[in-house]
Prior knowledge:
By secondary structure, the chain is mainly β. It is built from one helix and four strands. The protein has one domain (6-87). The longest helix is centred in the middle third of the chain and has 7 residues, at 41-47. The radius of gyration is 14 Å and the shape is globular. The relative contact order is 0.20. The model has no long low-confidence stretch (mean pLDDT 80).
Amino acid sequence: MGKPGLSAWHIAACDAVVVTADRPDGRLCIVDVAASKIPLLAEILAALNARPRRVEVHFPPDYLGWTGAAVPAETPTVLMVRGDPGQLDPFMLPETAAF
């Protein structure tokens, strides 16, 4: 893949491409998923043969078959918004977004 630290994985069983970011501390960071039907998190983990201590996603996890609380990213990421930022749910543009 063109951006350092990112890897793209094709999961043939789901016909999905999963983009992950390198994390040295045992976390699996799923940056993006491209598929006509988003696979469940369990399917992604099984296909990647991954048993991370924590999974971090950079998109809403509602299609992954998992529920939890959104936690702000621990990065110096800054985003400019129009309107009242207090009304926004936590969100982040994926590292695969091109500007």
